[in-house]
């Protein structure tokens, strides 16, 4: 088949690689001008890594990944360690080490593996037509392209999702603000902030400041600030971070002092989308954030997109009634689990950001002296049920 993919992010490139390797003719279009994804890095838990292994990228991804051995929570004002524990049980239970990875590095790897000659940047899709045998995408420059199948991996504001949900109860569904803004970026690893092999998170006041290792002796850092959406902000301005965290522990002050806003500082308002049940329409399907835009609170956004790719590619390789039939099977296999992860992330964000102060205070109390068993149970619980596991863990 000839297949058009809209979106050259993690989901679009991973499904593109899989479908090319099955012998399909695949082309990707993306409206971005160059590889500049939103967000500095992401946590890839074992379910996401396993899909990348399945794509033949085991060694490459291990090279990009930070060596994450332990997790620790520290009290935000004093810097006192509340709990610290090994993440080895997650590896043992799931059969695969997890890696934090710089998003630009991973996306560059996936784009190069797919083939840069078949990726058309600066190409904004503006319309879709499906005549029952061919799908045609129209672009802002007046050009068109046609194929047997179109996959919309075009992100949170997906035009493909708008097309797929037309005429359903989900038509026009808008994203909702999660109640907090995230600042993130990359800095040189610095043990005054936290050990180089540890995910260290400072918590108090419904806010979080964290670092985790990525390749190149770097830390991925992030801060969460509960606040209204739409606040004015000038790119690179450190003032909101200084105001929110300037009274926190010495390790957090070291983190603030290490950031070079001209090199790496992103500000992202966190929004999500109520679970969507309609993922397909005729010969058109959605994938990744287009299908399940989620908050990052359980670290499963990219992993869920990779699961989509695994399932869709497997369905297309193993079912032969029709394109439409295969896509309906993909939707049936993915919508429930992906939607559940969206709701889990929303619930987690509500707990950690003091939207319910009693719940957040109870969470802080639970961290004091914790042995990590409950936290690991939560991490593995998000991985259980992944289609890449091919059965129970």
TrEMBL record:
Range of residues in the leader sequence: none
Q: Which reaction does it catalyse?
A: urate + NADH + O2 + H(+) = 5-hydroxyisourate + NAD(+) + H2O
Question: Keyword set for this entry?
Answer: FAD, Flavoprotein, Monooxygenase, NAD, Oxidoreductase, Purine metabolism
FAD-binding domain location is: 3-342
An example of a Pfam family matching this protein is FAD_binding_3
Name-wise, this protein is FAD-dependent urate hydroxylase
Class of enzymatic activity (EC top level): oxidoreductase
Functional pathway: Purine metabolism; urate degradation
* Cofactors that this protein relies on: FAD
Q: What does the similarity note say?
A: Belongs to the FAD-dependent urate hydroxylase family.
Q: PANTHER family, per this entry?
A: MONOOXYGENASE, PUTATIVE (AFU_ORTHOLOGUE AFUA_6G14510)-RELATED
Tell me which InterPro entries the record gives.
Answer: FAD-bd, FAD-dep_Monooxygenase_BioMet, FAD/NAD-bd_sf, HpxO
> Which Enzyme Commission number(s) are listed?
1.14.13.113
The source organism is Microbacterium sediminicola
């Amino acid at each position: 088949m000839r297949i058009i993919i809209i979106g050259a992010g993690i989901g679009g490139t991973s499904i593109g690689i899989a479908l090319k390797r099955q012998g399909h003719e695949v082309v990707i279009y993306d409206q971005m001008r160059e590889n500049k994804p939103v967000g500095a890095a992401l946590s890839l838990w074992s379910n996401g890594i396993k899909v990348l292994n399945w794509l033949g990228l085991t060694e490459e991804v291990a090279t990009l990944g930070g060596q994450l051995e332990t997790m620790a929570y520290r009290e935000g004002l004093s810097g006192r360690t509340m709990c610290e524990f090994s993440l080895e049980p997650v590896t043992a239970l799931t059969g695969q080490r997890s890696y934090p990875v710089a998003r630009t590095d991973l996306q560059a790897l996936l784009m190069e593996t797919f083939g840069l000659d078949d990726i058309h940047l600066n190409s904004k899709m503006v319309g879709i037509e499906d005549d029952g045998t061919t799908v045609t995408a129209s672009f802002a420059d007046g050009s068109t392209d046609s194929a047997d199948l179109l996959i919309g991996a075009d992100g949170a504001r997906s035009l493909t999702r708008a097309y797929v949900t037309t005429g359903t109860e989900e038509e026009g569904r808008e994203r909702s603000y999660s109640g907090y803004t995230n600042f993130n970026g990359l800095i040189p690893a610095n043990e005054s902030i936290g050990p180089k092999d540890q995910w260290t998170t400072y918590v108090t006041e419904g806010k979080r400041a964290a670092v985790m290792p990525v390749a190149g002796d770097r830390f991925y850092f992030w801060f969460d600030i509960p606040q209204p959406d739409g606040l004015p902000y000038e790119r690179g301005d450190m003032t909101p971070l200084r105001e929110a965290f300037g009274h926190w522990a010495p390790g957090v002050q070291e983190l603030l002092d290490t950031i070079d806003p001209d090199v790496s500082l992103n500000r992202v308002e966190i929004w999500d989308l109520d679970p969507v049940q309609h993922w397909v329409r005729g010969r058109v399907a959605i994938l990744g954030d287009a299908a399940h835009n989620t908050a990052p609170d359980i670290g499963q956004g990219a992993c869920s997109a990779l699961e989509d790719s695994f399932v869709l590619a497997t369905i297309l390789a193993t079912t032969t009634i029709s394109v439409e039939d295969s896509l309906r099977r993909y939707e049936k296999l993915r919508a429930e689990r992906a939607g559940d992860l969206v709701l889990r992330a929303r619930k987690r964000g509500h707990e950690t950001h003091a939207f319910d102060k009693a719940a957040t205070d109870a969470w802080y109390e639970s961290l004091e002296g914790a042995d990590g068993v409950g936290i690991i149970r939560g991490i593995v619980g998000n991985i259980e049920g992944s289609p890449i596991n091919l059965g129970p863990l």
